[in-house]
Amino acid sequence: MSIQSEQLQQFFQLSFEEGAKEHGVRQIMLHAVDVFSRKGFAGTKIKDIAESAGFSQGYVYNYFKSKDEIFTRIVEQAADGAGKAVEFASRLEGTPMERITWLTEAFLAPDSLAMQHWRLNLLQTAAADAIPEEAKRIAKAKMGEPFKHFVPMVIEGQRMGEIAEGDPLMLAIAYFSFIQGLGISRIQTTSELPFPDANVVLAFMRRPLRYYAGKEEAE
Predict the structure, then answer these.
(1) Is residue 108 a contact partner of residue 181, using CB atoms and an 8 Å limit?
(2) Residue 149, exposed/middle/buried by CB under 10 A (0-12, 13-18, 19+)?
(3) Fewer beta carbons below 10 Å: N end or C end of the chain?
């Protein structure tokens, strides 16, 4: 993994810590994501989250009134984190394709906090009728945040000849669909199957090159 990707990983962690300053709250949220993902929203109880985190139920209730509040807080944190991650990547020194590659490496790292976002997306899709209305409202309101900084990188990359031609928004939608699908696949896969790296993931975005008489020429 590149230095820039490691910087993004560190940014994910710092962003999470800024959004949940108490260590106990962070532990509750991280364990809650795991429990919600395994048991579903309807099947999860505060007791399950407390046991997973190694806390008493009373300790959890010191910070959250209900599992609805925990879930909603996680959704808000994940949605904010996704937007901030792309914004941070867009400010790194490098070409648009380099920045997108570093972002992809950070997103797909096995221990990436960004994976929590994909796990929640899976849960929200599978149990849309069960999750809190406030969580659905927040997710819908913030779903466009990552695109605000990703689409301009695509446009810049197209101008430089790095990124394939096409509607920048459609390329961005395809990118995040791909990332989300791989994130969910990693969570669901228990075997030691090989996992695509950033270069494989981004092949559809790279502008193809042809060689004529030893001269490299973009299509």
Answers:
(1) no
(2) buried
(3) C
Cα(120)–Cα(144) distance, integer angstroms: 16
84-134 pLDDT per residue, tens: 889 999 999 999 999 999 999 988 887 777 666 666 665 665 556 678 888
Q: Are 48 and 40 in contact (CB under 8 A)?
A: no
DSSP reduced 3-state for 140: helix
Give the residue among 139, 168, 132 at the shortest CA–CA distance from 81: 139
Element (H, E) at 217: strand 215-218
End-to-end CA distance of the chain, in Å?
A: 30
CB atoms within 10 A of CB 165: 10
- 30 token code pair: 């991280």
What is the spatial distance between Cα 196 and Cα 194, in angstroms, rounded to a whole number?
7
Long-range own/partner contacts, residues 164-167 (CB < 8 A, 24 or more apart): 164/204, 164/205, 164/206, 164/207, 164/208, 165/207
- Give me the count of residues in the chain: 219
Contact call for residues 162 and 207 (beta carbons, < 8 A): yes
Cβ–Cβ < 8 Å for 124, 75: yes
Name the token pair of 219.
């299509």
What whole-number distance in Å separates Cα of residue 188 and Cα of residue 190? Answer: 6
Q: Please state the rounded mean pLDDT for residues 39-46.
A: 88
